[in-house]
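Page 37, continued from 36.
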C-alpha cells in the first residue's frame, strides 16, 4: 500500500497544478463560488486560535467521491488524479453536452487508475458514446475483459463485469482499447467518455443520480447560518490523501442543509476516519447529524509526519436535504511573525522543474 499511496499523493499534486491551469474549466464545469476565502464570520468560532494550512473546500477536486460506488468523472478538474495527471493516459480535449462533461479518448487506448481496498468482483459502469469506433475492449490490470459493442450516437451506460481474480488490493489499472479512430479537431478520436463508476459486486436496481463535481462545492445554510461547504447525498464518502504536518488539527462543521426541523427516518451519522500509510484505520469522529452545525477541531498529533487517507463519511437518512461538511481544513496553531529591525532588501526565488527522486 505504501507505493500506491505515494503514487496517489503524486497524482493529487499533479491534479492541483493542472487545476490551476484550467480556471475556465472550474468556472464552466464546477460553477462553484470563487475560492477567495469565506465571508466574515463564516468559519466556526473554534477555528479562532488556529490558522489555515490546507483548505479542503478550495481543493475539492482532490476528493474521491464514493456514492454507491466510486464515481470517476471525466471532463472536470476531478479527472487528473485518476489519469496520472493525464501523462500518456490517452485522453484528449474536453467537451460538454447539456447533461454530460467528458473527455475524448484519443489513439487506440486510454487509461484510468483507481484504488480498491481488496480483490473482489466489480462492475464498471462506463458512460460513453462512439466517435471513431463501435467496439471497445476493457483491460483490468493487463487482463482482457469481454469486448463491449457501442451503439447510437448519444451517451449511454455500458456495464462491464470484472471477476475478482482480475482485481487487486491497491491500485488498479483500467485500460480501454478501441477498434478505430477518426480525425476531429486535430485529434484521432475513438470515443467520448463521461464517467466510470466502480461498483462492488453488481449494481442495485433503480435509478441512480450521479454525484457530479459541479454540485459538490457550494454555499449551504444549516440552522440559519450559511457557510461554504461540500454538500453530498447519503450515503457518500469523500476521501482525501493528506500529508499531516506536526501540530495539525482537522477542523470542520457538519450538518443537514435544506431541511427544517428534525431529520426524518432513521437519522444520519457522520464519521471521520484516518488511515496512515501502512497503518491501521482510526475513527476520530462518529456522531448524529442535525439541522444545526456541529463544529469540530480534532487533534491529528498521532498522524504527524505521515501520509494519511482521510475519509468523511455520511450514512443514514438525511431526509429531503443534503449533508454538508463546512469549511473543512487542516489547521495549525497561530504563530506570531518576528518583527524585523529593518526591512528586507532582497528576495531569492528558487525554481526547480522535473526533479527526479534518487
Amino acid at each position: 500500500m505504501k507505493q500506491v499511496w505515494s503514487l496517489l499523493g503524486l497524482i493529487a499534486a499533479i491534479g492541483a497544478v493542472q487545476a490551476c491551469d484550467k480556471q475556465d474549466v472550474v468556472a464552466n464545469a464546477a460553477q462553484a463560488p470563487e475560492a477567495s476565502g469565506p465571508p466574515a464570520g463564516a468559519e466556526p468560532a473554534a477555528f479562532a486560535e488556529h490558522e489555515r494550512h490546507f483548505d479542503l473546500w478550495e481543493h475539492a477536486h482532490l476528493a474521491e467521491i464514493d456514492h454507491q460506488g466510486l464515481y470517476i468523472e471525466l471532463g472536470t478538474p476531478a479527472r487528473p488524479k485518476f489519469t496520472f495527471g493525464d501523462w500518456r493516459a490517452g485522453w484528449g480535449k474536453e467537451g460538454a453536452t447539456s447533461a454530460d462533461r467528458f473527455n475524448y479518448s484519443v489513439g487506440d487506448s486510454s487509461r484510468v487508475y483507481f484504488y480498491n481496498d481488496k480483490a473482489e468482483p466489480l462492475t464498471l459502469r462506463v458512460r460513453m458514446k462512439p466517435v471513431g469506433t463501435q467496439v471497445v475492449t476493457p483491460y483490468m490490470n493487463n487482463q482482457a475483459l469481454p469486448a463491449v459493442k457501442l451503439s447510437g450516437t448519444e451517451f449511454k451506460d455500458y456495464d462491464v463485469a470484472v471477476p475478482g481474480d482480475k482485481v487487486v488490493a491497491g491500485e488498479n489499472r483500467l485500460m480501454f482499447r478501441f477498434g478505430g479512430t477518426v480525425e476531429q479537431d486535430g485529434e484521432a478520436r475513438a470515443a467520448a467518455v463521461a464517467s466510470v463508476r466502480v461498483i462492488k459486486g453488481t449494481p442495485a436496481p433503480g435509478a441512480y443520480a450521479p454525484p457530479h463535481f459541479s454540485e459538490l462545492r457550494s454555499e449551504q445554510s444549516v440552522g440559519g447560518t450559511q457557510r461554504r461547504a461540500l454538500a453530498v447525498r447519503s450515503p457518500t464518502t469523500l476521501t482525501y490523501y493528506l500529508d499531516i504536518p506536526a501540530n495539525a488539527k482537522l477542523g470542520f462543521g457538519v450538518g443537514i442543509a435544506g431541511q427544517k426541523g428534525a431529520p426524518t427516518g432513521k437519522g444520519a451519522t457522520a464519521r471521520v476516519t484516518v488511515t496512515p500509510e501502512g497503518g491501521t484505520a482510526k475513527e476520530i469522529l462518529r456522531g448524529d447529524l442535525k439541522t444545526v452545525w456541529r463544529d469540530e477541531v480534532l487533534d491529528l498529533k498521532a498522524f504527524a509526519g505521515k501520509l494519511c487517507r482521510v475519509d468523511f463519511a455520511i450514512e443514514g437518512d438525511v431526509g429531503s436535504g443534503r449533508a454538508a461538511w463546512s469549511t473543512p481544513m487542516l489547521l495549525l496553531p497561530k504563530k506570531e511573525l518576528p518583527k524585523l529591525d529593518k526591512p528586507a532588501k532582497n528576495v531569492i526565488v528558487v525554481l526547480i522543474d522535473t526533479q527526479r527522486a534518487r
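Confidence is low (pLDDT under 50) at residues 13-41. Flag for discussion at group meeting. The helical segments are 2-20, 23-30.
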